[in-house]
Design brief:
heterodimer; A: about 70% helix; B: alpha+beta; Immunoglobulin-like; 5-stranded mixed β-sheet; 3-stranded mixed β-sheet; about 40% helix; about 15% strand
Chain lengths: ~550, ~350
Amino acid sequence: MASETIALNLVKLGTRPIGDRLHDWVVTVDHKKLGILYILYALMFLVIGGIEATIIRIQLIVPHNHFVSAEVFNRMFTMHGTTMIFFVTMPILFGFGTYLIPLMIGARDMAFPRLNALSFWLTAFGGLLLYYSFIGGSGLYGAGEAPDVGWFAYAPLTARAFSPGHSTDFWTLGLLVSGFGSIGTAVNFITTILCMRCPGMTLGKMPLLAWMNLVMAGMVILAVSPLTAAQLMLSIDRYLGGHFFDAQAGGSAVLWMHFFWIFGHPEVYILVIPAFAFVSEIIPVFSRKPIFGYPVMVAATVCIGFVSMSVWAHHMFTVGMSSYGNTFFVITTMMVGIPTGIKIFNWIGTMWGGKIQFNAPMLFCIAFLFQFLLAGLTGIMLSAAPFNWQLTASYFVVAHFHYMLVGAILFAIFGGFYYWFPKMSGRMYNETLAKWHFWLFLIGFHLTFDFMHIPGILGMPRRIYTYEPGRGWEIWNLIVTIGVVFQIAGVVAFVINMLRSLVKGESAGNDPWDAWTLEWSTSSPPHDYNFARIPVIRSRRPLWDLKHPEDPDWKYE
Amino acid sequence: MKDTERERKWGNIVGTVAGILILLASLLLATNLCAADAATSPAIPSIFNPQSTPADSIYHLSIFVLAVTGVIFAIVFSLIAYAITKFRRRSEDGAEPPQVYGSNQMEIAWTVIPVLIVLVLFMATARVIHAIEDARMPKGAIEVTAIGHQYWWEFRYPALGIVTANELHVPVSNSSRPSPTFLKLISADTDHSFWVPRLAGKTDLIPNRVNRMWIDPHDVGVYVGQCAQFCGIQHAKMLLRVYVDSPQQFAQWVQEEKRPAQSSDAAEEGRRIFETTSCINCHSVSGTVADGRFGPDLTHLMSRDTIASGATPNTPENLKMWIQDPDAIKPGSLMPAMKLNDPDLDALTAYLETLR
C-alpha cells in the first residue's frame, strides 16, 4: 500500500506548476523538507556572517585603519557572533538532525510534524527580526543601527542608559523568538528518538547520531531556557522598570553573566555534540569498521552533557570570584577533557586496522580530529584559571573558540554535507571540486586561526576596532587576514559544487558509500514517509547484516 | 577498473599530502607559541615576558601546562597520523577489514590516564590561584583605587591624597625592599577590565562591585596595557600605562602630585575661560572652582605623557585638537567638542600647559 501512495505523490509533484511547488515548501510539515529549509536558511546566514567577519578582518589588517568606523566595527562583531551561533550553526545542525533522525531510526516523520514546522519558522523569523535592526533600531549612544553590545551583551551596556535605541531590543527579541524555536525542536527530537524507533531498535542499537542528538536536545532544553528567561528579564529592565541587571539601581551585572554563560557554555557542547555525531557516522563507513567502543561513546556523550552544565563560570574567572569558586570551575572544566579525550581515542580506534578511503567527507573528518584535538588542548590552557586571567578576552581565546567552531564543528558540518548530499539530492557531488574546497579551506583556516593565537599572547584584547602600532601585533593580524581569502575561495568552490551537482551530478543511487545505517536503505532522495515498509532491525548496523548474512553484527552485540 | 585505480592513486597522494600539510600546520602553531615567547622587546606587552610576581607565577604555570598539553598533542597527533598513513585502503578487492567492536582494557587505559593528568594539572593550578588571589596585603603596600570610566581610568591614592588619570605610577618592588601595589577596582559605568600583561592577569571592573588585584613590578619602566572588556564605542582606545618608578622617583612624583595647581598670571585669561565654560562641569583642578568628577582630574595634566587615555601624546597641538574636536582623536568619546574661537583656544591651552 505504502509504495502505491508514494508513486502517486511523485506523479502529482512532477506535473504541478512551480508556484504550487514553492507553496509546498512553505506549508510543509515533512521533516526532510524542513531539514533542507533549515540548512539553506543557515547557509544564507553563513554567507552574511562571513561577510561581517571579512569586514572585521579588513579593518584589522593594519593598525589605525579607517576601513570602517568604531561603530560599524562594533556592530559587525556583535552581528557576526550572534549570527554564526544562533542563525548558522544551530539551525544547520538542527536541519541535519531533523532530516536524518527519522530516517536513521526507521520512522516516517518526526513525532510532532507541525511543531517541527513551527520551530523552523520561529527560528527563521527570529533571524529576520535580528537583521531588521539594520534599518529599525539605533544602538549605543549615538552609534546608529544594529546591535553593538557584543554577542554576550554584558550588562549594564544593554541598559537604556547606554543603549537607548531599539537595537538591543531587536537582539533580545530575535534570540527570544529563535530560542522558542530551538526548545520546540529539542522537544521534538527527544520525543521522536524515545518513541518512534523502528521495531528491534533498542536504545543500545540506536545509531550514535541519534544518541548524540538526544543528549544535545536535552541540553538545549536545560540551557536555552535560562537564556530565554534572561532575555525577558532584560526586556523588563528596559521597559518595565525592573532592576535585575541595572547596576545603578542595585541590580547585578554579574547576574547577567551567570545567566548568559549557564546558557553559553552548554551551547558550545550543543553545537559540538552533533558535530561529534557526524564524525561518528562518517569515520566508521570510510574506515570500513564499526565504531570502536559504542557503549563508551554513548557514556562519554552523556557524561559531557552532565559535566558541561557545571562549567559555565570558567567564562568568568576575571570577575572576581573567590579562590574557592575559581578552583571549583577549574576542576569541572578540566574534567570535560576526559570524556572528550575518550571520544578522540575511540575515533582513532575505529580507524585503526581499517581500510581508510579518503573521500571528501573523510578528509573533513580527519581535519576535524586534528583541529578538535588542538582546540581541546588550548581549552585545557584556558581552564587553568590563572593562565585564563591572561588569555581570556584576548585574541587567544578568539582563536581558541574559532578553532572549535570552525576547525572542529564547521569541518564536521562540511563532512556531513558531502556525506549526506547524495541522499538529500539523489545526485553525487564532484569529488575534485570537493577536494579543492577542502584544501583551500584548510589552508585558509590554519593561516587565520593558527596565527590568531599570537596577538592574544602579546596582549591584544578582542573587540577593539583599532590597535596601536609597535606592540608586535601587525604581522600576525596581516597573516590572519590573508587566510580569509583562502577560506572565501574554499566556500566558493563548495557553493559551485553544490549548485552544479544539483543540476548535473551523476545519479547517486540509494547507497553510494556502501554504508550501514537505515537512511541508506531507502531511495535518494527518500520518498514522502521515508520507507515503503517500516524496517525491522537486529543490530546497530542493519545494512551490514543485510549485505553480510554470513557474518551479521547481531551475533556479536 | 582503470578509473578506480586512478582514483585510488589520487587518494593515496591526497592522503600523504594531507598528513604532511596538517602536520606542518600544527607544528607551525606549536612553534608560534614559542616564537611569541621570544618576543621580549619591552614595548611588546607579552604575557611570556613577566615583570611582577602574579604575572611570573602565571608564566611558570603556563609553561607547565604548555609542556603537558604539548606531550599530549605529540602522542595523539602521532597516533592519528600513523593511523591514516598505515591503514589507508591499498587494494580494490572489496574485502572488508576485520570488524572490531571495542576493547574494555583500552577504554579503561584511556580513561584512567587522562584522569591522572587532569588531577596533576588541577593541583598545579589550584596552588597558583591560592597564591595570587589569597595573598595578604603586607605593611608598606601602596593602595590605589582604580575606577573605570567610559573610556578612561581614574586612579586615586587614598593614603596619599592623590588623584590622577590613565597613567598609574607605582614604586618598583624587589625582595630587598618589597613594596607591592594593591588595587581596588570599581567602575563608574559599564564593565571594564584592567590588563597590563607583563604585570598581572586581568581583573574586571564591574559597577556595584569591588574587585581587587595586586602587582609588585620588579623593574622600572613603562608597562602598557588596555581595557580588556568591551565597554562601549571606544573600548579600543581605553589604553593604560603603568609607570614603575624607582623609590626616589616615586617619592618625588608623590610630592609633585600633592601640590595644588600652580597659578600663573600669564595664563590668567585661559584660566578664566576654563572656569567660566562647561570644562569645570566634568574636570577638577585642585585649588580652583573646577571640581567636576565626570572627566579626568587636570590638576597635574602636564605631568602625563599622553592624553585621551593614551590615545595620543600630550603635546600642545594634540591638546588643542582634543579640546576642539575629541572625535577626531577618539570617535565616541564622551567629551563634547568645545568649539572655541582661536584666541580663546590658545589661551585655554596656555593655561592647561601651566598645570604641571
